[in-house]
Amino acid sequence: MTLVADKSILLVEDEALLAMFEKNQLEQGGYVVTHVTNGENAIQLIILEGKPFDLILMDIDLGRGLDGTQTATEILNHKEIPVVFLSSHTERDIVKKTETITSYGYVVKNSGFTVLDASIKMAFKLFEANELTKSKKEHLETVLQSIGDGVIATDSDGKVIRMNPIAEKLTGWAHDEAVGLTISDVFKIVNVKTRSLVENPVDIVLRTNSIVGLANHTVLLSKDGCEYQISDSGSPIKDLNGDTRGVVLVFRDITAEYNVQSQIAKQANMLNNVLDAVIGTDFNHKINYWNKAAEKIYIWKAEEVIGKSVLEVLKTDYLQLTSDQVIEKVNLEGSFIGEVIQFAKDGSIRNIEVNQVLLNDESDLPIGYIAVGRDISDRLNAMKQVRESEAKLTQIIESAMDAIISIDQSKRIILFNGAAEKMFGYQSTDIIGQGLDRLIPMDFRSQHDSHIDSFSKTGVSRRAMGALGQIRGLRANGEEFPIEASISQISVKGEKLYTVILRDVSVRNLSESKIQKLLHEKENILKEIHHRVKNNMSSIFTLLTLQARSQTETSIQTILYEAAGRVKSMIVLYDKLYHSETDNTVSLQDYFPAIFNEIVSIFPKNVELKMEILEEPIELSAKLLSSLGIILNELITNSMKHAFNDITNAEISLKIFREGKKLYLEYADNGVGIPDSISFEHSPGFGLQLIGMLVDQIEGKISIVRNPLSKFLLELSI
């Protein structure tokens, strides 16, 4: 269960008022919240300063600079942390943009704290689950790489798909060289006496669908010319339906064991240091040697078993042979190597790889038996996990919704998943081995071949979905249809293999056409909405103005005029938007003279206005102008309330000028001035506090000049 009291959240939100509301809600919900207004500050905190956060709540639109998805991508390149996107957008392309990032949720603004809280908690759970899955996968890979025996996995055709480092060392083949080759090319074994080839265990497993062991006196011929006497076992890899998908071959070098078996009796005192169980018996199977490893593996102490029959102490299942048959084999051939199941003192089961040989005296006359046993229970469990992992990979490919097709260098199909069968109308059994051009319209085949050839020469390992643009596919019934494709390539012993992932975009193309029509309708509706909103705000403005004029108390009248001024700034902006031909932008030269005159006219006091605005046309976004309109309203209201009490020739001036990429707004009046004790940080009223918040939101700077006239200077980057 996730405890929110211990969780810290970084809120990245450029809307000041909305950020205050969201931060308050989260803190009331028990979270520790830190707020920044832009992506650069988020990167500074997490990457450069190393501040610890449990989750990032990321707004997608962050104004100027990096947007939410760019910020999240940069952070995730340096740190694993869950990111939940918070946005007012519900458009599919915006949501889809976040899906390419390691996102743990997408919450629409104003969905309510319950939805936001549930999404955050779900993100914590998903993050914890992903970390656990990653840990288990790394553990599985470590087990496979650290096994002391050689391990080779093949597919159902007997071709190598994986080798561990021990297998590379014994066979002399590097992993990348061996993958794709048949097992007989990599794992060459002969009889040590006759030098004739021995049937490969993989071929036996595929033929019999059962576990097999290697015959005695078998030598592995390494690629580098070395020879190793080995023991091995082959086991089928089965999927969840019980069908054999390949083979796992486990083998080890037992050359040293063969060389020292005749010396075991003489060097018994040294055998306590080996990890394998070593048991010596006479011809009546009475135990005369039991080393420390045997004590550890079977839990029997040496003093408990010496003199007893090994057949009574250890219950042994030889899997394919009886105990008598094994003894006969040892007596005739000199040894037996294979896997057995044995029971320890407490009844627990041990999977043992045993090498049982005749023990000779100094005259080379047999005097008993020596059995060397290795506990391979962990190894078998590791192989089981490998088989399950391979089965899961196969299931993932088959359950993928996109068509997955692999081809060899001659462009013949070698993999055709279930989605490809549905998309093209072919069964995999019918299409495997066929040329890829059967799936491509005639007039596009040469172009498609050149695409693959040029991609092969780039050396790029993969190219993302849609990078090739839309191409055409050909179904079995002759129907052509549009598809998007991603392609990747790998090289196996000089031969390149290509895998393409295809997506049928027929429905999407139709949907996009409908969307374009709806967008056109939306533009018309939006203009109508602007008009209606303006009319409604005009009604509100009129009511506030009438109410102000009807008041006798100056303080109440001033409050109503302030509210009316804020509404008026919005009315002017909506009017300019309604008549604007651009997309959600308004000319600075059209907006500021209109709003300046309109706001001043609200107040009953006569004031002379002076405006000096640069002639160069500048288009600004409605969002920025809305904030600037409210700032200007607060400045005018402040002048009307405090500056002109005893002044008859009241005057207000507004100057807008530009220097390079900086835009400056200079506001001044000829009133009594602003006391030194008043600032944006220390203001008794709401007006200057609101100005300070809005300036931070638009990433500007504002300062107060008190002499010779009261003046505010606002600086913006454009």
CATH fold category name of the largest domain: Heat Shock Protein 90
**Backbone shape:** elongated
CATH superfamily of the largest domain: Histidine kinase-like ATPase, C-terminal domain
SSE-based structural type: alpha+beta
Oligomer: single chain
State the CATH architecture of the largest domain. 2-Layer Sandwich
Mean pLDDT: 81
Keywords: ATP-binding, Kinase, Nucleotide-binding, Phosphoprotein, Transferase, Two-component regulatory system
Pfam family, one: HisKA_2
Domain PAS: 136-209, 263-317, 389-443
Domain PAC: 214-266, 330-388
Verbal overview:
Keywords: ATP-binding, Kinase, Nucleotide-binding, Phosphoprotein, Transferase, Two-component regulatory system. Residues 136-209, 263-317, 389-443 form the PAS domain. Residues 214-266, 330-388 form the PAC domain. GO terms for molecular function: ATP binding; kinase activity. It is elongated and about 135 Å long. Strands 6, 7, 8, 9, 10, 11 and 12 form a seven-stranded antiparallel β-sheet that branches. The chain folds into five domains: 8-139, Response regulator (Rossmann fold, 3-Layer(aba) Sandwich); 147-260, Beta-Lactamase (2-Layer Sandwich), CATH 3.30.450.20; 274-381, PAS domain (Beta-Lactamase); 385-499, PAS domain (Beta-Lactamase, 2-Layer Sandwich), CATH 3.30.450; 572-717, Histidine kinase-like ATPase, C-terminal domain (Heat Shock Protein 90). It is α+β, with helices and mostly antiparallel strands and 718 residues long. Helix content is 41%, strand content 26%.
